[in-house]
Amino acid sequence: MRKNTLSSLIWLRMARFTHQSNLLSNEFLKQFGITAAQFDVLNQVSIYQPITQSQLAVKATVSEGGISRMLTRLEQEGYIQRKQDWKTKWISLTAKGENKMEEAFEHQLAFQTSIVNECLTKEEQKTLYTLMTKLQKNTELKIKSSRT
Amino acid sequence: MRKNTLSSLIWLRMARFTHQSNLLSNEFLKQFGITAAQFDVLNQVSIYQPITQSQLAVKATVSEGGISRMLTRLEQEGYIQRKQDWKTKWISLTAKGENKMEEAFEHQLAFQTSIVNECLTKEEQKTLYTLMTKLQKNTELKIKSSRT
DNA sequence: CCTTATCAATTTACTAGTCAAGTGACAGCG
DNA sequence: CGCTGTCACTTGACTAGTAAATTGATAAGG
User: Fold this and answer.
1) Residue B148 has what pLDDT?
2) Torsions phi, psi of A25, nearest 5?
3) Looking at CA atoms only, how far is residue A83 from chain B in angstroms?
4) Would you state the pLDDT for residue B145?
5) How confident is the prediction for chain B on average, in pLDDT?
6) Which domains does chain A have, with CATH numbers?
7) Which pLDDT does position B100 carry in this prediction?
8) Cα-Cα-Cα-Cα dihedral sign, residues B33, B14, B60, A33
């Protein structure tokens, strides 16, 4: 039997947790008629609007092609609008999109919070956040340098 | 501006890290001609073989439909074989699959390990693993109970 | 025997993502 | 005035996943 390192076990736990919590989020958000990925993008738009597609792709850590497809879906649903200006398209929420976020944001936040609160103390959460930030900032750098 | 909780920030960091490290893994594994998802499944098969598809779906935290497609791809590539026995199909690695894992396993492990080692001390890694395990075990339970 | 239930696996229709090639509009140079 | 480059975005071909309906083989009852 092959031997694993502590690091690889951490990777596995993280991948499993992320995948599973995504399933739970999707199930939870079904009542609002949106998916976890859509919530994520709508949330980024609501924070940074108006924002260009390429900037939004960076914020959502998704490729330009990916954000293009996602926005097509969200536009069809009437949650966002794209305003062409020169070669750039500026993205913002429609009234319907604002309402949807108004409706869903707090519930989704409470949902995520309750899952974490159930098994970690405040102190543990702080520690986890610090460690995750270190890790994620590091991979972010690697991603950027690999795209040069 | 909407206020986030510590928990939701943890979720976001985790989602971003997982996504980005998946991109890096895919890039790294390109030299072996497999993807990170394929590596994951091949690894589970190598540990538990012979294993049925539904058991494998649980190990890889993927739906039955998902594992069916994935195995079709891996079978086409010649990495695994399915032996029909009654209504069950038993999955195991072919010689080619064994060789591929022999070739890729240690490198992938070293790759994952180096990324974590770069930014966290051994002590921090232990802490992170403990916290992640608590979290993941909890969502695992929730997933199971939601499927009843 | 024939029907029905069961259960693993598959298929269908979908979202979500990747990379890489293609489009379209403008900018600037000769 | 036209060619060429650039830049934002889109599209095509793909992997990877989901939920839900379907298939196919076997066991069990009437």
Assistant:
1) 66
2) -60, -45
3) 23
4) 82
5) 93
6) 8-105 (1.10.10.10)
7) 96
8) negative
